[in-house]
Amino acid sequence: QDPIAIMLRSPMAAVPRLLSATARLTATTAKKIGIAPARSFAWTPQHHAFPRRTAAELYAEIRDLTKEGGDFTIHNYVAVIEDMRPEAVLVETELFPRGAIEFYTAKNMGWDFTQEEYDEWFMLERGGDQGDYREGMQAKIANVVDCLRTHSHSKRAIIPIPFNSEGSENVDWNDAGQTKCCRELHVYIEDGKLCCTGFLRVQNATIFPKNIHFFATLLEHVSKELNVPMGEYTHFISSLCHDRSATQC
């Protein structure tokens, strides 16, 4: 059926057919003039409906959504950040001044830090075992770089966070060190840019500034290793709460 006619009746139903028709037209045109069609961003139609936010806007939004506090929880939040440069995603708060953010980023990246830095910036209120991603991180990053350097189209470039020392069959909900907040980062190259999708089991809104700066720094490191510009980041949160007053996070 004509996708335009379908769109007049049901706009969302027409989107997949319009995209398919556009792809066929692009491929046909390219074939006629003897060149391979350029690959465009191959996002799902639903992806274009995801809200675009700066890191500061996303932080303000999730804080507002969960302002009731306590155990009030928002499920299945998603947003896209298009500018993932570490400086662009730096969100300073009373809990997370720049020094604290940069300390936790270095810690989670597996970089060296001094005892003086630890004494100055480490606080349980800024996240304990659940937000400690340091163990094995340098090896995980090196694996992503090797994967995408070997196969730029690979879907295997991942940063798995939980179960650093034990297999998933040993999962124990009582162990905060196992129930990491971030579960995986999926890294991929799309349209010549390094992109990432992050999956979080839970996001404490007040902790977001620490998380996003770490993710951005990790992606910047990989992009430099691959000599590929940074693209966008999609942030999926299964359970979103306001602060540490929420229980069973």
List the helices and strands and how they pair.
Layout lengths: L2 H7 L1 H22 L22 H11 L8 E8 L16 H12 L5 H7 L15 H14 L7 E3 L21 E9 L2 E12 L3 H19 L3 E12 L8
Parallel strand pairs: 4-5
Antiparallel strand pairs: 1-5, 2-3, 3-4
Helix pairs in contact: 1-2, 4-5, 4-7, 6-7
Could you please describe the fold and organization of this structure?
The protein is an alpha+beta fold and 249 residues long. It contains 7 helices and 5 strands. It has helices spanning 3-9, 11-32, 55-65, 98-109, 115-121, 137-150, 208-226; strands at residues 74-81, 158-160, 182-190, 193-204, 230-241. The protein has a 5-stranded mixed β-sheet. Helix 1 (3-9) runs antiparallel to helix 2.
Arithmetic mean of pLDDT: 83
Continuous helix count? 7
Shape: globular
According to DSSP, the number of beta strands is 5
SS-derived structural category? alpha+beta
Cα-to-Cα separation, first versus last residue: 49 Å
What is the beta-strand fraction? Answer: 15-25%
Residue share in helix: 25-40%
Reading the helices and strands in chain order gives: HHHEHHHEEEHE
Return residue spans where pLDDT drops below 50 for at least 5 consecutive residues.
1-8, 11-40
Strand order of the largest sheet: 1-5-4-3-2
Using only C-alpha atoms, the radius of gyration works out to 20 Å
What does the largest sheet look like? 5 strands, mixed
| Oligomerization status of the protein chains | single chain
